[in-house]
């Protein structure tokens, strides 16, 4: 059985589903099978690549498949940390695999979102600002502060918005022939990520001023 460590590391994103029975059981099975947390992190990129490719296919079933890939990516993000920490399989390169695949996965989802919505620049803006939110968070950690995972468009909220938009778009496309849900999603993620960058930066500034 996976052992539960009492402390929460400052560089670990707080996720409510980490304490759910299915997550604990699945992480336990993976750990016992010898599946490494780094391989789970890499698998998240695979799901993102598949989801991004499906996003570019203008068909309801493809977009539902892309939505499922978004959720599969998030499950990987949940399980890699659980296998590493609770499963006792931390590696020296764990921090690297915890961050880099996430940035790649975000890009693989968000750039195609812009193309699917008919505004390629919007997808690139989404991806750039999503990466910037992570940069600000990690920068806070680099100056000795606890990493700030908060914000109106943190990763889970970006992916939740994308999942919802894909499901709506899969209904909208055959009924109306439009893609407003995807366009709205791109705009919301872009603006929300910008706000998140600002609020996290302000939090760092306040913390450094008090120090």
Folded structure, characterized:
With 211 residues, this protein is mainly alpha-helical. It has a single domain, classed as CDP-alcohol phosphotransferase transmembrane (TM) domain (Four Helix Bundle (Hemerythrin (Met), subunit A), Up-down Bundle). 74% of the residues lie in helices and 0% in strands. It has 7 helices and no strands. The radius of gyration is 18 Å and the shape is globular. The N terminus is likely disordered.
Give a topology summary:
Blueprint: H1 21-32, H2 37-55, H3 60-85, H4 94-117, H5 120-142, H6 155-176, H7 180-210
Helix pairs in contact: 1-3, 2-3, 2-4, 3-4, 3-6, 4-5, 4-7, 5-7, 6-7
Brief overview:
Keywords: Membrane, Transmembrane, Transmembrane helix. The protein has a single domain, classed as Up-down Bundle (Four Helix Bundle (Hemerythrin (Met), subunit A)), CATH 1.20.120.
> At the third CATH level, what is the topology name?
Four Helix Bundle (Hemerythrin (Met), subunit A)
Strand content: under 5%
The CATH superfamily is identified as: CDP-alcohol phosphotransferase transmembrane (TM) domain
Question: How many beta-strand segments?
Answer: 0
Query: What best-fitting shape do the alpha-carbon axes yield?
Result: globular
Main sheet: strands, sense, barrel: none
Radius of gyration: 18 Å
Number of domains: 1
**What share of the residues lie within helices?**
over 70%
Average pLDDT over all residues: 89
Global structural class: mainly alpha
**Terminal-residue CA separation:** 41 Å
Give the CATH level 1 class. Answer: Mainly Alpha
Please tell me the CATH architecture by its name.
Up-down Bundle
Counted by DSSP, the helix tally is: 7
Keywords: Membrane, Transmembrane, Transmembrane helix
Protein name: CDP-alcohol phosphatidyltransferase family protein
Transmembrane segments: 39-57, 121-146, 158-175, 181-199
């Amino acid at each position: 059985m996976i052992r539960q460590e009492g402390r929460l590391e400052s560089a670990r994103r707080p996720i409510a589903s980490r304490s759910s029975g299915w997550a604990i059981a699945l992480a336990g099975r993976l750990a016992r099978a010898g599946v490494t947390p780094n391989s789970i992190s890499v698998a998240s990129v695979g799901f993102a690549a598949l989801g991004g490719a499906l996003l570019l296919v203008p068909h309801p079933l493809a977009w539902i498949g892309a939505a499922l890939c978004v959720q599969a990516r998030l499950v990987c993000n949940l399980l890699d940390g659980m296998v590493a920490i609770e499963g006792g399989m931390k590696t020296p390169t764990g921090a690297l695999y915890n961050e880099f695949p996430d940035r790649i996965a975000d890009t693989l989802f968000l750039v195609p979102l812009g193309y699917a919505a008919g505004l390629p620049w919007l997808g690139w803006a989404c991806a750039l600002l999503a990466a910037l939110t992570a940069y600000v968070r990690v920068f806070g950690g680099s100056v000795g502060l606890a990493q700030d995972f908060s914000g109106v468009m943190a990763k889970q909220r970006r992916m939740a918005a994308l999942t919802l938009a894909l499901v709506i778009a899969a209904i909208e496309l055959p009924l109306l022939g439009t893609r407003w849900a995807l366009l709205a999603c791109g705009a919301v993620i872009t603006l929300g990520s910008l706000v998140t960058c600002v609020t996290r930066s302000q939090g760092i500034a306040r913390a450094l001023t008090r120090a």
